[in-house]
Amino acid sequence: MRTRLSYDFFIPSALNGADFLAALTRLFETPMERRRVDYGAFYFDVSDVEVRNCQTVGLVSRHRMRNLPPAGDSRTGSLDQLSLSDHQSVAEPCAFLYDSELNTVVFQRSPHVSHAAFARLVNWAADTTFFFLPVLNEDAMSRLQKLHKLRRFVLTVASPQAAEYFDELESSLKGLAGFVRELAGGRIRIDVGVLQKSQYLSKDAILHTVGALLDRLDDQRLEKLEVDGEDEAGRNHVVDFIDGQFREHEALAENAPRHTDIALLKDSIRKAFNDGRMYLTTHLQSRAAQAPPMAAAG
């Protein structure tokens, strides 16, 4: 099964108008023992930084120093102590990219390291107060219309009155109400996909179903509504109707490497940025056009 990496996009901003590239440079120039954010049992740090033209790419890692996992033996199933020296850690890295031309941070989604941890590292070392503003998607329905081959539909509803939720829908999903009521179900997840890449789902049926749910997107009972598919150029997109943040995805090789491939992480995040560049450029131009004019100094 292919490993898929996901990336979020942010605009770094500081109330005092500080320059993010200058803050990054100060972070990298700070000695490791002074720049890391240390919590005792683990710490965060940056490493493997490369600067090419207007792009800075590197890794942010969570380093586990305590409660280390054991090493398992695939032949016997036994668990043995992981042998590390006192100064070594178990690192859990994820990639970041900063493009100074577009003033955009791309951050690999990870269960171990968040974009907030990256911001803390920068603010700690550079004595700044940066925060990351998420880049938002264009209207989800417009994005869905641009997909040509739809391959997955996911819907999750969670409520003690889940049957009533389906009862009120003007779509074929209404037929689930009786079944959910018989089971006394409270959480229903519908995940419809295809068996082969050459196949795809009915776009008309999905458009009709999504249309029936559009006025319910703010209903807390609707936890997830996603559609996966390809655009005309063959690029894969995930249209998320609940989470409006702009996101790119990259599929890695069929067989994952034995060890984390740092070069692969960097190449993947560069490709994610390049795939999103056109949208980012348009989005940022639109954002600048909508910004109120600055008052002239008196």
DSSP strand count: 14
Q: How many discrete domains?
A: 2
Helix amount: 25-40%
| Uncertain spans | 291-298
Order of helices and strands: EHHEEEEEEEHEHEHHEHEEEH
The largest β sheet comes out as: 8 strands, antiparallel
- Tally of individual helices: 8
- Strand content range: 25-35%
Description of the structure:
- With 298 residues, the chain is of the alpha+beta class.
- 29% of the residues lie in helices and 32% in strands.
- The strands form 3 sheets. Strands 1, 2, 3, 4, 7, 8, 9 and 14 form an 8-stranded antiparallel β-sheet that branches. A 4-stranded antiparallel β-sheet has the order 11-10-12-13, with helices on one face. Strands 5-6 form a two-stranded antiparallel sheet.
Helices and strands, with pairings:
Layout: E1 4-14, H1 20-29, H2 32-35, E2 37-38, E3 42-52, E4 55-64, E5 71-72, E6 79-80, E7 90-99, E8 104-108, H3 115-126, E9 130-134, H4 140-146, E10 149-158, H5 162-167, H6 177-183, E11 187-193, H7 203-213, E12 222-230, E13 236-240, E14 247-251, H8 262-290
Antiparallel strand pairs: 1-8, 1-9, 1-14, 2-3, 3-4, 4-7, 5-6, 7-8, 10-11, 10-12, 12-13
Outline of the structure:
This protein is α+β, with helices and mostly antiparallel strands. It contains eight helices and 14 strands.
Feature tags:
alpha+beta; single chain; four-stranded antiparallel sheet; 298 residues; eight-stranded antiparallel sheet; 29% helix; disordered C terminus
